[in-house]
Amino acid sequence: MMRILTTLQGEEWSRAVQRATQHDFYFLPEYHALAERRGEGEARLFVYEQAGHTIALPLHIRALPDYPGIGGWAKAWRDATSVYGYAGPLCSHNDIPRAVVDGFHRDLIAALQELRVVSVFSRLHPLLPEQTMLLDGLGDHQFGGMTVSLNLSVPPVEQRAQYDGTTKNRINRLARLGTTCALDQEQRHLPEFVALYHETMRRVKAEQSYFFDAAYFTELAKSLGPVLKLFVLKTPDGEVISGGLFTLCAGIVQYHLGGTRNTALKFSPMVLIFETVRHWANQNGAHTFHLGGGVGAKSDSLFHFKARFSRQRHKFATWRWIVEPEAYRELSVRKHVWNSERGLKAISPSFFPAYRCPAVPVGEQQFFAKKTAAPCAATPR
User: Same structural domain for residues 87 and 166?
Assistant: First the structure.
């Protein structure tokens, strides 16, 4: 049986998530409600139950009528995507019978067709490899790169032994300089962190959508409560030069967002923040510290910075599913014609869904294809 929950049913949503073998803050109703309030679509949790097993999939349902190039014809259709970060399906058991998975597929197809959903795009969770099995047969999943985590289940000395020499030297240098890193329990330095985050986004030339305003951070802190943690690094005179937002949920510490002052880059202050968070995570019973990956999951300088802390890797994948092929084809053709009539061309032939692909004047798409999106966690140094 399939139930579709909204964020107004927060307690029921939470119970379904907590039945999973593993989850983290990206699945919480409070996080989805925040995204909903910020115009990212209508949050829904599709909960399927059969023979004592549960599969739960969070999605955001988006309207199409106002999207450029596809016209009023699209007003009857919608599509679905995942919340910012890592999402995908959760399951209540490590071994879900194929009959349960098939039942989940059948009911999910029916539910999405009733909602007039054309396509689904979702980022999957690197720490939950079983997700691809749960989705096998619904569209396809594409592996896009690797992420890095620290296994906190081994003794702390073994954790730190995985740091490379450069990282250890940077940590020692920061200590000699008298910098200190600590958990900001009351998040008094949140405004300073926001300024550092924006400074970092300008430095890495991030897309405008990643410039979360101050209200977002305030709402994030209010929504997640004790799940969200702010760590800041200060100079001996008390100036905040770097900071990071981290979460602790169900044993997983996630590095969410970070920022560093331009003038402090040469000291790589984020290494001491990661080291401090690792100690804190151990003290608070976490089993995994997930640092994430590179920009757009690429093997870039951000990925290699994180890789200096651990040799443990996870595959990052996205899920792409065309629920209504004829409608998808019609929307894509309409967008292509609209672009052509205006001398525009899609920036990428692999963008999904195709009808939402940004377009630029012909001849410029090569430049835009080379641009990279901002990282989920701001580039640390």
Answer: no
Distance CA 377, CA 230 (A): 13
Q: How does the average pLDDT of the chain come out, rounded?
A: 93
Between the alpha carbon of residue 252 and those of residues 88, 112, 189, 209, 343, the distances in Å are 16, 31, 24, 27, 48
DSSP state of 82: P
| Domain boundaries, position 82 | 2-138
What dihedral angle (degrees, nearest 10) is formed by the CA atoms of 117, 220, 245, 62?
A: 10
Same-domain pairing of 111 and 155 = no
Single out the residue in 115, 138, 161 at which a domain terminates.
Answer: 138
Domain boundary among 315, 343, 365: 315
Structure tokens at 250: 């169900």
Counted residue by residue, the chain has a size of 381
Mapping DSSP to helix (H, G, I), strand (E, B) and coil, where does residue 280 land? helix
CA atoms of 89 and 366, how far apart (whole Å): 35
Cα(287)–Cα(283) distance, rounded to whole angstroms? Answer: 11
Q: Could you tell me if 7 and 43 are in contact, meaning their C-beta atoms sit under 8 angstroms apart?
A: yes
User: Which DSSP helix (H) or strand (E) runs through 115?
Assistant: none
Q: How confident is the model at residue 366 (pLDDT cuts 50, 70, 90)?
A: low
Q: What angle, 0 to 180 degrees and rounded to 10, lies between the N-to-C axes of helices 29-37 and 214-224?
A: 150
CATH of the domain at 156: 3.40.630.30
C-alpha Rg value of the chain to the nearest Å: 22
Residue 95 has pLDDT above 80, yes or no: yes
Would you state the structure tokens that stand for residue 341, as one six-digit string? 């009539």
Q: What is the pLDDT of residue 379?
A: 41
pTM passes above 0.85: yes
- pLDDT at position 364 is 67
More confident residue, 100 or 205: 100
Count structural domains, the chain.
Answer: 2
H helix intervals, 208-263: 214-224
Q: Is 354 part of a structural domain of the chain? A: no
Closest of 70, 83, 80, 88 to residue 141, by C-alpha: 88
